[in-house]
Amino acid sequence: MELSVFNDGSKDKSMTIIEKWKVKLEGCGIPVVVGGHNCPSPRGVGYSKNQAIAQSSGAYLCFLDSDDVMMPQRVRLQHEAAVRHPTSIIGCQVRRVPPNSTERYTRWINQLASDQLLTQVFTSHGPTVVMPTWFCSRAWFSYVGPFNEGGRGVPEDLLFFYDHLRRGGGVVRVDQSLLTYRFRPDAATHAVLESTIWTHRVHFLEERALQHWATFTIWNAGRQGRRLYRSLSEGARRKVVAFCDVDEKKIKKGFYCYEESQERPKPRVPVLHFRAAQPPFIICVKLDLTGGVFEDNLRSLHLQEGQDFLHFS
Fold first, then answer.
1. Residue 281 in contact with residue 100, Cβ under 8 Å?
2. Do 49 and 103 contact (CB within 8 A), yes or no?
3. Which of 210, 245, 268, 276 has its CA 20 to 30 A from that of 141?
4. How is 130-145 classified by DSSP, letter by letter?
5. Are 313 and 284 a contacting pair, CB within 8 Å?
6. Handedness of CA 98, 100, 101, 107 (dihedral sign)
7. What span, in angstroms and rounded, lies between the C-alpha atoms of 99 and 195?
8. Paired sense of beta strands 255-257 and 268-273, if any
9. DSSP alpha helices (H): ranges in the chain?
10. Contact status, residue 134 vs residue 70, Cβ threshold 8 Å
């Protein structure tokens, strides 16, 4: 095993800590490679990850953020999985600190079924295995990568994840909690604008799913559903045959008018009760927020995720 550390222009005591651990780890037989730069400004997360990989020599890559803690068995268990799945990103379950910081997100990370690791890649949560848990072969990373080096405000992990899927990569999760995943309000991920991520998500949804569907229904006639409709390309928008909902007021009105459209007459999309609507559905309802009511409604239709519906919440 080898540890590769890249210091992206830190002005704090990072190098002192790194040098201290370098002595300890090399005393245990683990080589430590340290790189960095003295530029006045950081070059960004994508650049730093690429540099840490470039200066390392291992056949497999195990990613770890500086503020997270991994369990002793992590490398062994994820390596075993990577050998079995050489073109997959291997993740794991996590323990969130503080425990109540992102409860819904943490449940989603840890409880997705194996098939949902591929069907729920369009949601606002991002990659279905979180980046600090990633493990993969160097060969596969080189085939997909490198990370985007656009710097602050670029969702480099999401973009890499999408490229990984485009190249036929799989997603596997070791179902053990192998990482203490810290929540920090000042983390670099919070510098990425929601609108930036939204745009990437919509484009990926159109590319991977909507281009293969003749028509579809948007589940949610409210703000998020209408926003998705307006964000779609003209071709994809024409495939929307209806919105569906449970809100009696929206259903009673009977339609949504796309006021911003340049078309005349302006498009009017029917609003139906979800039981009267036809799949496939793009679901813009957030999971785990209605006390199970939405999930029960969806299950009652006996649909297959990935074929009859996709989550975009």
1. no
2. no
3. 210
4. -GGG-EEEHHHHHHH-
5. yes
6. positive
7. 28
8. antiparallel
9. 14-27, 45-54, 74-84, 103-111, 116-119, 138-144, 156-166, 194-208, 223-231, 234-237, 248-253, 293-299
10. no
Measured distance CA(298)–CA(286) in Å, rounded:
12
> Cβ neighbours of residue 97 under 8 Å, at least 6 residues apart?
180, 181, 182, 183
- Structure tokens that stand for 200 in this block: 């990437």
Enter the tokens of residue 291: 């006390």
State the DSSP code for 124: T
> Distances from the Cα of 232 to the Cαs of 10, 176, 192, 198, 242, in angstroms?
41, 38, 21, 11, 14
User: How many C-beta neighbours within 10 Å does residue 127 have?
Assistant: 23
d(CA 313, CA 310): 9
Q: Side-chain half-sphere of 143: how many Cα atoms within 13 Å?
A: 15
Both tokens of residue 173?
Answer: 């999760």
